[in-house]
Design brief:
Layout (H helix, E strand, L loop, with lengths): L22 H11 L14 H14 L1 H7 E2 L7 E5 L9 E6 L19 E2 L2 E3 L7 H16 L8 E6 L11 H10 L7 E10 L9 E8 L1 E10 L3 E2 L8 H13 L9 H11 L4 H7 L2 H12 L3 H7 L2 E8 L6 E2 L2 E10 L5 H12 L5 E8 L10 H13 L4 E7 L15 E10 H4 L8 E3 H17 L1
Parallel strand pairs: 3-6, 3-7, 7-16, 8-15
Antiparallel strand pairs: 1-2, 2-6, 4-5, 5-17, 7-8, 9-13, 9-14, 10-12, 11-13
């Protein structure tokens, strides 16, 4: 027999984090931002010289890592470090981040996107959040431990790829993972960038919520195209190819995939409910009764809505290159983030049904299935959770479903325990700066990120 569950709010345990001198990490992050390590899709020009210069900077900024920990990487512009542990029999662990960033239009920024600006308590610049913070903090933790003659219990690897920001990139983590396979390596734990310690993650819950990704949604790009008669704009024949594609785009925006609460999201709600105040405890701990209401509530927030359904959104459109010419062919690209349980066929079927126009064809140009789900009930996750609690003692820590794509999935053959977390406390508006103008990172977070990795290296 099912019963209603009522839980009282728990008082968060106060923890004392290790406090190494992390001020140099702030200056190093500022300098790291100045390197325009912008990765570009195949067919466009990536300035690989910037990656070479960035590697030279890291060698100077972290001389002990360069001398004692860096190992040969078989692929160009990728970086690998190996920090040997005391227990040679323990399975090693892996930390990952990426060197590359997305482009930035200087005119849209308050401060130069590739400058060294520190103002109002923030380091500003492209990559300050995504994801040079992670890279610098990992190396700073390594550097401090080597300097202090400390050794981790097990051997740790760090791998930094060069093309995470390219959809389907195969020069970065893909090649690193292949090298690890040739080396015969498997890992007891893998931690990549991911969820943050989020303020106001769910409206009404005052405590920050640290979300650790145990799975990723899939990724799919679909091209909509239509061919119609071309002509001069002075004598238009409608509907045009562009008009039909535009109508299809609007139809997609006005529709939604079905809502569904998957296992990672169900676990997240349960974890939050155990530490949340009464209304949320009632809502999240009685899913057998409250799922329909949760779907309605989550559907009102773009972030929460993406947790419970596959999402499709038009991102690119192309037609005539002149204002007075009616294009013969019009195209649009729709990007879909695929919830576990959906696949390429189900998404294509949904889009075709919504568009309902035989003149508009659909072609899938890229598809990556949802990732495997890593367990959140074993020792590896418990250690990450404990380390987060030490560094961010006020936070509720929970597993969750990662909405974006990371390099982590490229290592799945090498590790069963793959997690995604960025040790930074931010509100929703700060998170939205990622890939947008005025990306920035609070200096407190830079210090806490180093503390987090330092603690993790010593604990696992």
């Amino acid at each position: 027999m099912r019963t209603l569950v009522l839980r009282e709010k728990k008082v968060p345990a106060k923890g004392v984090s290790p406090s190494p001198d992390t001020l140099p990490a702030i200056a190093k992050l500022q300098e790291a931002i100045t390197f325009r390590t912008v990765s570009r899709p195949e067919g466009e020009t990536t300035d690989w010289e910037q990656f070479a210069k960035f590697a030279e900077f890291l060698a100077q900024a972290f001389p002990l890592c360069e001398k004692h920990l860096k190992i040969t990487c078989d692929s160009e512009y990728n970086l690998i470090y190996r920090f040997e542990g005391e227990d040679a029999q323990a399975e090693p662990a892996l930390l990952t981040a990426h060197q590359d960033v997305v482009s930035a239009n200087e005119e849209e920024w308050t401060h130069h996107p590739f400058g060294k600006t520190e103002q109002d308590g923030y380091v500003w610049g492209r990559g300050s959040f995504d994801c040079k913070l992670q890279l610098i903090a990992i190396l700073e933790a390594f550097e401090q431990m080597v300097k202090n003659h400390e050794k981790p219990r097990r051997t740790w690897y760090a791998a930094f790829g060069c093309d995470e920001e390219i959809n389907g990139g195969n020069k970065g983590a893909t090649l690193i993972a292949e090298q690890f396979e040739r080396m015969g390596l498997t890992f007891s734990l893998l931690l990549d960038e991911g969820g943050v310690v989020s303020e106001n993650y769910i409206k009404g819950i005052r405590r920050p919520i640290a979300v650790v990704g145990v799975a990723e949604k899939g990724y799919m790009d679909t091209t909509l195209s239509c061919n119609r008669d071309a002509g001069h704009s002075s004598t238009p024949a409608v509907p045009t190819a562009l008009g039909k594609v535009a109508k299809a785009v609007v139809a997609i925006e006005e529709s939604r995939h079905p809502a569904r609460i998957t296992k990672p999201v169900e676990a997240m709600l349960r974890n939050i409910g155990e530490e949340a105040p009464f209304p949320f405890a009632f809502l999240f701990l009685n899913l057998w009764f409250t799922k329909p209401l949760i779907k309605v509530i989550f559907s009102k927030s773009p972030t929460l809505n993406a947790l419970i359904r596959t999402t499709s959104v038009p991102t690119m459109i192309q037609a005539s290159d002149k204002s007075n010419v009616i294009a013969q062919t019009a195209k649009a690209v729709v990007n879909t983030r695929v919830l576990s349980g959906d696949d390429q066929a189900s998404v294509t079927s949904h889009l075709a049904k919504v568009i309902n126009d035989g003149d508009v064809s659909l072609t899938v140009s890229r598809y990556a299935a949802p990732s495997q789900e890593s367990p959140a009930s074993q020792e590896a996750f418990a250690m990450i959770k404990a380390t987060i609690s030490k560094t961010f003692p006020e936070a509720i820590v929970t597993s969750y479903l990662m909405l974006g794509a990371t390099d982590a999935r490229k290592y799945e053959r090498l590790c069963q325990f793959v997690y995604r977390f960025t040790p930074a406390q931010m509100d929703r508006l700060e998170v939205l700066r990622m890939h947008a103008p005025d990306e920035r990172m609070h200096t407190d977070n830079i210090q806490k990120a180093v503390m987090f990795f330092h603690s993790l290296l010593k604990s696992w």
